[in-house]
Design brief:
Structural class: mainly alpha
Shape: rod-shaped
Number of helices: 1
Radius of gyration: 36 Å
Keywords: Membrane, Transmembrane, Transmembrane helix
Protein name: DUF4834 family protein
Number of strands: 0
Organism: Parasediminibacterium paludis
Distance between the termini: 119 Å
Largest sheet: none
Length: 81
């Protein structure tokens, strides 16, 4: 009878410690890891979009044609007093 009670108490403690281990350590760590992965992914997406827009702007400016013609003579501006 005494050995059965000791086994029961042992199993109760074991179940209790497993419960505490899972809900106080494993689950919070897994939530934190998933949040960190999501944050890193968002940061990488932002970096990619910034790099994409940075590479798009110079090419758009480079393809614009100048509005003035190069055949005209250059005339110095003289200030009238």
């Amino acid at each position: 009878m005494c050995i059965i009670m000791i086994k029961l108490i042992f199993w109760c403690f074991l179940v209790y410690f497993l419960y505490r281990f899972i809900f106080d350590l494993v689950i919070p760590i897994s939530r934190t890891v998933s949040k960190m992965k999501e944050t890193v992914q968002n940061m990488q997406d932002q970096q990619r979009s910034q790099q994409h827009t940075a590479t798009q702007q110079p090419t758009a400016e480079a393809t614009k044609k100048p509005t003035t013609t190069t055949n005209d003579e250059y005339i110095d501006f003289e200030e009238v007093k």
